[in-house]
Every structure is written in structure tokens, then in C-alpha cells.
Amino acid sequence: MADKKTLTFAIMDAPYENARSTTALRLIDAALRRGYNVNVFAYEGAVYIPFAKQQPHANAVHGRTVEEEDHPNPKDWVAALYAEAARRGVTLDWVQCGLCVDERGAGDWIEGPRRGSPADFVKFVNESDNTLVIPTK
What we know:
Elements: E1 6-11, H1 19-33, E2 37-42, H2 66-69, H3 74-88, E3 92-97, H4 98-104, E4 114-116, H5 118-127, E5 130-134
């Protein structure tokens, strides 16, 4: 039996669309900081959360430069979650739904997440102490 509890999160919303993705990342961060192993199953638009080609940008509407805008990218937050997991001695297993990745052309993501299928989500649920699904509206 594992010495640490495991939580699974299923997320579906794309980054930048609403607060659900940000909330999910905050919950995952809180779980890691409290010593839980965490599984993430990214489904539908959520496969863009660790998308490697995200770039910081200026804001022409507000007249701010890239540096002034200081716009965080979700891929950087995901990388920070992996660093936090390593620092805490827990695991973060982030699975990207392969079907969703292919449909959206989102196959270029940062180091850490891996390709999988809904079968991985079923396995996560069966092996976790608890599961939270954050659906789209």
C-alpha cells in the first residue's frame, strides 16, 4: 500500500477561456504542497494547458510591453507543478488525452505530461483515494 494518498483531477477547459483551468491548477498545487501524489487527466481543450508554444505577449490595447504585461502562461504553471512535486517527494502524473491532442493539433507540450487515453483516467480513478472532475459548463 502506498504511503502517500493519491488524488486524481480530470480537467476539460482550455487555458485562457475561464477560471476553471486556473482553479484546477491551484487545487493541484495545494494537493502537491500537502504531500499528495497527484494524477491529472487532461481532456478536450485542457490538452492545451501544457502546450509548449504558448508565448508571453504585449498588450497593444493597454499599451504595455511584454515585460510590463508580465502575462503568465499555463505551461509555466504546469512546469512549476512538476518542480513542486519533485521538491515535496510526491508524484505528478499528467496524462494528455491522445484523441483530444490529435483533434486539436496540440501534440507539442512541455516536458512532464504524457500521452494517454480515457483508459488512463479509469485506472487513475480506481487507484486513487479521491477524484475531482472539473467539467466544462
